[in-house]
C-alpha cells in the first residue's frame, strides 16, 4: 500500500514537472521577446537623453580643435604681447586652459575622438615650444607667429582639418 502511494506521488510529480517544463518552453519565446522589447525601449530612452549631450560634446571638441589651431589662436592673441616668450607662455596657457575646460567631454565622445583631441593639444604645444626654441631670446611675438605659421604651411596636410574630419567621421556613426 505504501508502495502504491509512493508510486502515485511519483507519477503526479513527474507529470507536474513535465507540465511545468512544457509550459516554460512554450512561454520562453514570449518572455524573451518581451525582455528584448523592454531592453530596446530602455536603450531608446537612454539614447534620447544622451544623444544631445554627445552631440554637444562633439561640438565642443571641434571648437577646441579650431581654437587650438595656431592660425586662429595667434589671431586671437594678436597684439596682446610684444615678446616671443610672452606669446609662448600665453599660447601654452590658453591651450591648456581650453583643454582643461573640455576634459569632461571625453565621457561622451569615443576614445578615438578623444585621442585626436589630446594629439591636437600635444602637437600644438610641441610646435609652439619648438618654434620659440628656434628663435633668439629677444625675438618678437610677430617673429614667433611667423615661425609657427611657416611651419604649418610646410606641412602637406593641415593636421587640424584632418582632426576635424576624423571627429566628423566618428560622429556620423550616430546617424
What can you see in these coordinates?
- With 175 residues, this protein is mainly α.
- It has one domain (51-174).
- The protein is built from 6 helices and no strands.
- Helix 1 (2-68) runs parallel beside helix 4 and helix 3 (84-102) packs across helix 5.
- The radius of gyration is 32 Å and the shape is rod-shaped.
Q: Strand-and-helix sequence, N→C?
A: HHHHHH
Distance between the termini: 74 Å
Structural class: mainly alpha
Uncertain runs are none
User: Over the alpha carbons, how many angstroms does the gyration radius reach?
Assistant: 32 Å
Strand-residue fraction?
A: under 5%
What would the average pLDDT be, to the nearest integer? Answer: 87
Reported for the largest beta sheet, the result is: none
Number of domains: 1
Overall form: rod-shaped
Q: How many DSSP H or I helices? A: 6
The portion of residues assigned to helices is: over 70%
The oligomeric status of these chains comes to single chain
- Number of extended strands: 0
Q: What order do the helices and strands come in, and which of them pair?
A:
Layout: H1 2-68, H2 70-77, H3 84-102, H4 111-134, H5 141-154, H6 159-171
Helix pairs in contact: 1-3, 1-4, 1-6, 3-4, 3-5, 4-5, 4-6
Short summary of the structure?
By secondary structure, the chain is mainly alpha-helical. It contains six helices and no strands. The chain has one domain.
Kindly list the characteristics that best describe this protein.
mainly alpha; rod-shaped; single chain
